[in-house]
Each structure stands twice: as structure tokens, then as C-alpha cells.
Design brief:
By secondary structure, the protein is mostly helical. The protein has four helices and two strands; from the N terminus they run H-H-H-E-E-H. It folds into two domains: about 80 residues, no CATH class; about 30 residues.
Length: about 130
Amino acid sequence: MKRHEPLFDEGCLGFLDHRKQAKMQWFRGPNQSNVNNLTTVRHEDSRLFRNKMKEYTKDKIVELETKSKMENIRYSHRDISNFKKGYQPRINIAPDEKGDWFRFSHSLLARCRNHFSQLFSTGSSKKMDGI
């Protein structure tokens, strides 16, 4: 199983809380000082997130180098390809009877169930002559 390695830790959650508090303060009183405070907080937090991402990538590169030096080539190539690809969400979409597209899993399952039941019912209802 692939192990999930979180990029964000408690420090990042603190940054997000700090940004959220500044935004709520701006919502309560949208004056110039709150706007300036919000922009500085966003700027600082973005810088801290960028530094956190750089630190994570450097650590990941060092980890991949040590895996390849330990002659664990199979796992190092798998991790390198996962690292290069990044996060790729899975999207389930299919057309319905009208030709519209939908992507909810329960709708997709219902569509497949209806489709295959129609296929099997027409195939089993035909009589085979000569057998």
C-alpha cells in the first residue's frame, strides 16, 4: 500500500487559522487597516507555505537519492514517478440515456446496472433456432 505523507503539519494549520482570523476581522469591519492586515497576512502565509513546500521537496529528493543508493531500485522508481506526477484526482464520468454527462458514483452505478440489465434481457429473450 502507498503510504500517505502529509505535506502540511500543525504549523501550516496555524498559518491557515491566522489567515482565517484576519479574513473574519476584515469581514466584520472592512476598513483600510483591516484590508492592509489581511494582505500582509496573506503575503506572509504564502511565503511560509512556499518555504514549507521547498523544504518538503528537498527532503523528498534526499529520500529518493538514499533509496536509489541502497539498491532499492524498484521502490525508488515508483516513488520518483509518483513524485513527478503529483496528485491526480480520479474522475468518474459517463453519459446517460439523454447524452448528458454526470459524475456521481451512485448515478454511474445505476447507469451501468440499467445498461447491463438491458443487454442481458435482450440477449436471453432471443430463442436460438436449430439447437
